[in-house]
Design brief:
single chain; 533 residues; alpha/beta; 2-enoyl-CoA Hydratase, Chain A, domain 1; 8-stranded mixed beta sheet
């Protein structure tokens, strides 16, 4: 029969497409047009891409396979019955990024403002289920006016279905939200439940209540940008992880991030060929031993020196700058970096830094990514505001995250590690696998100067002049540091595995990571999700 059909088709003269094909093509073309040429042009006039252009920029060329193109709303009230709502305002499907499968949905602002109705939500839920079942990342491109008021509680129930799936997928597959327009009310909670949030300068906004509601409720006058723009969420609230100058730059960053992540908790991150010699020496680190312990420096310089090809992909760069988080590779393997930054608040741990580090560590643990901790911390940041804000509770989160993590953990004390912060930054007894220190490291209950003030208070008080006091303090501080804050003292108890030659630090870390590569099989660990801390 098939042979007969083939002969018939080959021998038949060309003729117009059958009615069924014409109907399909017409329906497809109409649905693909979104809100129409005029609304697409209005979108572009605001400096924004159309939903289909966004998918084109994000995914590998020609890889997108659309699902549910012909879905439309089932609601009929308030004129919806007579409205044309192509795809119910959202495009869903799957494709590839750098040859690896992903699921994606893109809200279409040209179709009744990208508002979320029940069919719209069902499409998103369907593609999220597909991602979870097939263990691939899911990416949401959000550009929506919020809940579709005409559909009442159905739209709110749709949001709830999405939130529930965000939680089910948490810690199982990577979830990424890209804010490309307004995101208000209930719509902000799905991005907050995902692992990473991207925003674009000039077009992205997120807020629970908009400027008009804020003014009516509190009398405060504030613009949308001041209330929920990129700067507000990247530097103040910490909701946003990455900020882009433009939409193409944003999609480039998303693609770069995914290059560091596994497809799911059942895999390891992708390994790449490493052109950077594993034994490359780092002579710059020798200067660490010459620095005054109180002198600030940017920890980024250390990370760049030890990372493959000096590349570091930072996460939340504008938020809680006293701690730095991000991804690099060592020996071709992905590593998550958590590092104190002495250039900001002396690298001390405060409320925001503790939250930032703890959630990042929990993400690394969920997705089989080793943790490299670079320590230069004077302690927890003091103050009434910190105490009343709950530094005890927030500071405990980083302790919990490190103790809970079963991925490979390597710690390097660069310069100083004092008090509870020494413990919190992945100390040996918090179950770190390997703990190294540079020769200049100071490890103690508190800094030598403070310790001397307590231990030798009488001797200092007995000094007759200020010059005598300063001289005695300097002498006693040097003696205390040599005896009680020395890395050799800590190494003698086994709390340090090795005091390393600074120029050899890159090799020591990479070699330890290679040894630990089979420490935990992907997917065998308990999954506690990646709750927004």
């Amino acid at each position: 029969m098939n042979d007969d059909l083939t002969k018939t088709v080959k021998g038949a003269p060309a003729r117009p497409a059958a009615e069924s094909l014409r109907r399909l093509r017409a329906a497809t073309a109409k649905a693909s047009a979104g809100g129409g040429a005029a609304r697409v042009e209005a979108q572009k006039a605001r400096g924004k891409f159309s939903a289909r252009e966004r998918i084109h920029y994000l995914l590998d060329e020609g890889s997108f396979q659309e699902l549910d193109l012909l879905v439309s709303t089932r609601a009929v009230e308030f004129g919806l019955k007579d409205k044309d709502i192509p795809g119910d305002g959202v495009i869903t499907g799957f494709g590839q990024i750098n040859g690896r499968e992903v699921c994606v949905y893109a809200q279409d602002f040209t179709v009744i403002g990208g508002s979320l109705g029940r069919a719209h939500a069902d499409k998103i839920c369907k593609v999220m289920d597909l991602a979870l079942q097939n263990r691939v990342p899911v990416i949401g491109l959000l550009d929506s006016g919020g809940a579709r008021i005409q559909e009442g509680v159905d739209s709110l129930d749709g949001y709830a279905e999405i939130f529930a799936r965000n939680v089910q997928a948490s810690g199982v597959i990577p979830q990424i939200s890209v804010i490309l327009g307004p995101c208000a009310g209930g719509a902000v909670y799905s991005p907050a439940l995902t692992d990473y949030v991207f925003m674009v300068e000039g077009i992205s906004n997120m807020f629970v209540t908009g400027p008009d509601v804020v003014k009516a409720a509190t009398g405060e006058e504030v613009s949308a940008e001041q209330l929920g723009g990129c700067d507000a969420h990247a530097s103040k609230s910490g909701v946003c992880h990455f900020v882009a100058k433009s939409e193409p730059d944003c999609f480039r960053q998303v693609r770069e991030l995914l290059g560091y992540l596994p497809q799911s908790r059942f895999e390891k991150p992708p390994r790449v060929a490493n052109p950077d010699p594993l034994r490359r020496q780092v002579p710059l680190l020798e200067k660490m031993c010459e620095l005054d312990p109180r002198r600030p420096y940017r920890i980024h310089h250390i990370i760049w020196q030890i990372a493959d090809e000096h590349k570091f992909f930072e996460v939340q760069s504008a938020y809680a700058k006293n701690i730095v988080t991000g991804f690099c590779r060592m020996g071709g393997e992905v590593v998550g970096v958590v590092a104190n930054n002495p250039a900001h608040l002396a690298g001390a741990l405060d409320i925001n830094a503790s939250d930032k580090a703890a959630r990042f560590i929990r993400f690394l643990n969920a997705f089989n990514i080793p943790v490299l901790t670079l320590v230069d911390v004077p302690g927890y940041w003091p103050g009434v505001q910190q105490e009343h804000g709950g530094i005890i509770r927030h500071g405990a989160k980083i302790l919990h995250a490190y103790a809970e993590a079963t991925v490979p953990k390597i710690t390097v004390i660069l310069r100083k590690a004092y008090g509870g912060a020494y413990i919190a930054m992945s100390s040996k007894h918090m179950r770190a696998d390997f703990n190294f220190a540079l020769p200049c490291a100071e490890i103690a209950v508190m800094g030598p100067a403070g310790a001397v003030e307590i231990l030798y208070a009488r001797e200092i008080a007995a000094c007759k002049t200020d010059e005598e006091k300063l001289a005695l303090k300097a002498k006693l501080s040097a003696e205390y540091a040599a005896k009680f804050a020395s890395p050799y003292q800590t190494a003698s108890t086994g709390s340090l595995d090795e005091v390393v030659e600074p120029s050899q630090l890159r090799y020591k870390i990479a070699r330890a990571l290679r040894f630990l590569k089979d420490k935990r099989a992907p997917g065998t660990h308990e999954n506690r999700g990646n709750i927004p801390l």
